[in-house]
Amino acid sequence: MNNAAMKIQNESQPMTHAEFEQKLRNIGKERYHDNCKFHHLLHNGMLNKGQVQAWALNRYYYQINISIKDSALMSRIKDPDLRRVWIKRILDHDGRKDDEGGIERWYKLTDGLDLERSYVKSTDGILPATRFAVDSYVNYVKNNSLLEGITSSLTELFAPKIHKERIVGMLENYDFINDNTMAYFKKRVDQATDDADFVLNYAIKNAKTRTEQEAVCEALKFKTDVLWVQQDALYHAYINGHVPPGAFMPEDFNDRYIEDK
To answer: What is the average pLDDT score of the chain?
Structure first.
């Protein structure tokens, strides 16, 4: 067998569990949105209040669609045991009798940033790219395989790190941020870790062929794209100064490039 034939054969063989997990982690290391320049500015105190408001407002649209995405996914799950595990994600965001939930904690952030709650809930001021990206994620979960829909959540492997950086950086660098406004992220550090462990184990157990493993990798890449494009849109609008018609316009908006200040 020549080298080309051996390469084709090797690429058709399933990765070992260790190789598969490492490939997923490499995707996150390269493509997760903690690498985005907007996040570096946010965490290092380089934004003004209006720019932080824009971030919180746009991220809210992603937050409220998580439960919609997970509800769509659950409607396709035939295994009651898996449904019982997955419903926890909806309750984490929508709340329980003894827990206000992630969406209510997000309002603590937007309230603390002096955004009118009715305006936040309307989603009228979000960027078009935010809407397109988040809606595409919901549609992806509806239309792709159950394996791809579930494992698109593998971005949670990398979420605790960015949450911790955000908590420390924003508390240190902004006088309009406090423990109460950061409640969502403090709660998600542990929640995201548990959720990520489950999805990683699910991927390793259920992606048995090389084709299925590659599909999981592509699902993770797609999700990193969904997150990345939202940060690019924020940077283009609120750092470079190209705010599209109808989008949120901060009172202290300045169209000068932030690093020129």
So the answer is: 92
Instruction: Say what angle helices 49-74 and 210-238 make with each other, to 10 degrees.
Output: 150
- In the chain, the number of structural domains is 1
Instruction: Please indicate, yes or no, if residue 120 is contained in any of the structural domains.
Output: yes
Question: What Cα–Cα distance (Å) separates residue 58 from each residue in 126, 160, 234?
Answer: 5, 20, 8
Give just the sign of the alpha carbon dihedral 184, 187, 189, 191: negative
Per the model's pLDDT, the better-predicted residue between 156 and 3 turns out to be: 156
Question: Which distant-in-sequence residues (6+ apart) come within 8 Å of 63 by Cβ?
Answer: 93, 102, 103, 106
Q: Which residues contact 85 (CB under 8 A, 6 or more apart)?
A: 198
In a domain, 128, yes or no: yes
249 lies in some domain: no
Q: Would you tell me how many other CB atoms lie within 10 Å of the CB of residue 203?
A: 24
Give the domain range for residue 163: 16-244
174 contact partners, CB below 8 Å, separation of at least 6: 45, 49, 52
Distance CA 9, CA 234 (A): 44
**Are the CB atoms for 69 and 141 separated by under 8 Å?**
yes
What's the 3-state SS for 138-183? HHHHHHCCHHHHHHHHHHHHCHHHHHHHHHHHHHHHCCCCCCCCCH
- Cα separations (Å) of 181 from 26, 90, 185? 32, 22, 9
Helix (H, G, I), strand (E, B) or coil at 56: helix
pTM of the model: 0.91
Q: Which amino acid is at 118?
A: S
pLDDT > 70? residue 26: yes
Q: How far is CA 138 from the centre of its chain?
A: 12
Does any domain span residue 7? no
